[in-house]
């Protein structure tokens, strides 16, 4: 299978050629030339598979240029009980008949991003070794993505991670997660500034092409194709866990920010997985919900982004959204390019019109948004009715998902983080702290390793240059 850019100008490339890339050269995102289709006999065989077997069955379709034995070995090393707390990897919890939570947050940083990122670490190490290359990952984080990247890349040969975070402004839990890593290839840089300063430094370094090339600088952002592909697997796993036969359909509710998670659901459905609805749930930052309901995509200014109690969904625009729009437009790169040109020029585009509803319906999408009060009420309600504590992001998904529940269609709500990561809001809802998963009890008292730096691109460059 080869990959092309959504904007149509890059030559088709195999999986390993796009693995380490961000944007395509024409500014678009990489997508498979066409999605593989799973026929019923294969779906039947998949039902009996455990997580690594299923991951191999699916990912071997996307990573055709990695020898099967190598891919299998990487998958088997990634999806283990030691890393994801159970052999199920993504256990399904049934709240009541027809209502389930798919646990995606049992990896090392207690959020769903680990499921893709842990595989990415092994894939990166493999491809870099084959090509005798090194990679220095530079990132900015306000907490979540940075720790998932560090836990994926720690100890990996040929890779160093330089992660900028705003000094004193990440939660103590998140800071402790990153700063307690003692691996010599992980560099935590606590910048004297806010998150935007950190992001500006990453941009400044990325814009210095000579420095970037000399020091082999790369990123691990959510547009990476392999991350999306790895996430396709748990939609299959969730489908099989919530049904008895392949005649059934299920709906998934997906707490959404950058559209990475639900993009994987869209691909699973496009591959033939019997998904009725993909329910896109946002918080107060409802740029995606607005699009699904109205056809208007309007990017928010930074000043318009609300800081909410589900912070990993606080976005101004959704970086993976272009992949979905490319499919809505039936892969018409000229039209897509025109839309993104308009987006760059005016901050919005509008696909509303008579065919819009049918176009969205054909992809199974529905959407809704929620507020802080909704999250609190949902966390309370789920706890009272089922004795289960869910985190704030998962609560957004459940709240919106329940609005689309249908008789005879199991609803699978994706759990994207553990409540322990957002204990303040849990305390507000329930008057108590959530329990910490085993191994995280004393996280904040572990020795920490980080360096405080000025929020100054030249100083950060000098820091990197001295270590690469
Ligand atoms: C990243 C994240 C999301 C949003 O996922 P996208 O793929 O960006 O849509 C939701 N919940 C949590 C806890 C996250 O970390």
Structure characterization notes:
- It is a single chain.
- The protein has 468 residues and is an alpha/beta fold.
- It has a domain at 89-109 and 226-430: Rossmann fold (3-Layer(aba) Sandwich).
- It has helices spanning 15-18, 40-47, 51-62, 68-78, 81-84, 113-130, 144-153, 172-179, 195-207, 209-214, 225-242, 260-270, 287-294, 321-328, 333-346, 356-362, 372-386, 392-402, 423-430, 457-465; strands at 2-5, 13-14, 30-32, 92-96, 99-103, 135-140, 159-166, 186-192, 217-218, 250-255, 275-282, 296-298, 348-350, 365-369, 411-415, 451-454.
- The strands form 4 sheets. Strands 4-5-15-10-11-14 form a 6-stranded mixed sheet. A 5-stranded parallel sheet has the order 9-6-7-8-16, sandwiched between helices. The chain has a 3-stranded antiparallel sheet with strand order 2-1-3.
- Helix 3 (51-62) crosses helix 4 (68-78), helix 11 crosses helix 12 (260-270) and helix 17 (372-386) crosses helix 19 (423-430).
- The protein is globular and about 60 Å long.
- The protein binds pyridoxal-5'-phosphate (PLP).
- Pyridoxal-5'-phosphate binds at residues 111, 113, 144, 222, 255-261, 312-313, 393, 416-417.
Task: Tell me the layout of helices and strands.
Layout: E1 2-5, E2 13-14, H1 15-18, E3 30-32, H2 40-47, H3 51-62, H4 68-78, H5 81-84, E4 92-96, E5 99-103, H6 113-130, E6 135-140, H7 144-153, E7 159-166, H8 172-179, E8 186-192, H9 195-207, H10 209-214, E9 217-218, H11 225-242, E10 250-255, H12 260-270, E11 275-282, H13 287-294, E12 296-298, H14 321-328, H15 333-346, E13 348-350, H16 356-362, E14 365-369, H17 372-386, H18 392-402, E15 411-415, H19 423-430, E16 451-454, H20 457-465
Parallel strand pairs: 5-15, 6-7, 6-9, 7-8, 8-16, 10-11, 10-15, 11-14
Antiparallel strand pairs: 1-2, 1-3, 4-5, 12-13
Bound molecules: pyridoxal-5'-phosphate.
């Amino acid at each position: 299978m080869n990959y092309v850019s959504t904007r149509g100008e890059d030559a088709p490339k195999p999986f390993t050629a796009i693995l380490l890339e961000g944007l395509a050269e024409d500014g678009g995102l990489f997508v498979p030339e066409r999605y593989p289709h799973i026929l019923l006999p294969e779906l039947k065989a998949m039902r009996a598979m455990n997580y690594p077997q299923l991951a191999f069955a699916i990912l071997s379709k996307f990573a055709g240029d990695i020898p099967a034995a190598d891919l299998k070995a990487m998958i088997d090393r990634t999806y283990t009980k030691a890393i994801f707390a159970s052999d199920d990897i993504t256990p399904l919890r049934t709240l009541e008949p027809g209502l389930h939570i798919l646990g995606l947050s049992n990896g090392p940083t207690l959020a769903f991003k680990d499921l893709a990122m842990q595989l990415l670490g092994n894939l990166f190490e493999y491809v870099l070794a084959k090509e005798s290359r090194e990679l220095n990952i530079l990132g900015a984080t306000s907490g979540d993505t940075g720790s998932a990247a560090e836990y994926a890349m720690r100890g990996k040969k040929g890779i160093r991670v330089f992660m900028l975070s705003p000094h004193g402004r990440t939660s103590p839990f998140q800071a402790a997660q990153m700063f307690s890593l003692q691996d010599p290839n992980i560099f935590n840089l606590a910048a004297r500034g806010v998150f935007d300063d950190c992001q500006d430094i990453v941009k400044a370094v990325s814009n210095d092409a000579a420095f970037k090339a000399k020091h082999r600088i790369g990123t691990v952002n959510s547009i990476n194709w392999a991350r999306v592909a790895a996430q396709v697997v748990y939609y299959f796993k969730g489908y099989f866990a919530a049904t008895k036969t392949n005649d059934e359909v299920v709906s998934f509710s997906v707490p959404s920010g950058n559209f990475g998670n639900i993009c994987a659901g869209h691909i699973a459905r496009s591959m033939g997985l019997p998904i009725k609805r993909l329910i896109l749930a946002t918080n107060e930052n409802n740029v995606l919900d607005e699009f699904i309901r109205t056809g208007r995509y309007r990017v928010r200014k930074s000043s318009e982004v609300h800081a909410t109690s589900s912070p990993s969904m606080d976005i101004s625009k959704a970086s993976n959204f272009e992949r979905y729009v490319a499919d809505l437009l039936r892969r018409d790169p000229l039209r897509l390019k025109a839309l993104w040109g308009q987006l760059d020029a005016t901050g919005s585009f509008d696909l509303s019109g008579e065919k819009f509803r049918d176009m969205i319906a054909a992809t199974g999408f529905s959407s809704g948004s929620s507020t802080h009060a909704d999250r609190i009420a949902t966390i309370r309600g789920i706890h009272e009715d089922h004795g289960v504590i869910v985190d704030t992001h998962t609560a957004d998904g459940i709240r919106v998902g329940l609005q689309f529940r249908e008789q005879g269609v199991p609803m699978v709500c994706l759990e994207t983080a553990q409540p322990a990561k957002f204990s303040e809001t849990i305390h507000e809802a329930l008057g108590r702290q959530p329990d910490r998963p085993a191994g995280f009890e004393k996280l904040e008292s572990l020795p920490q390793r980080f360096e405080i730096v000025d929020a100054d691109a030249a100083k950060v460059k000098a820091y990197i240059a001295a270590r690469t």
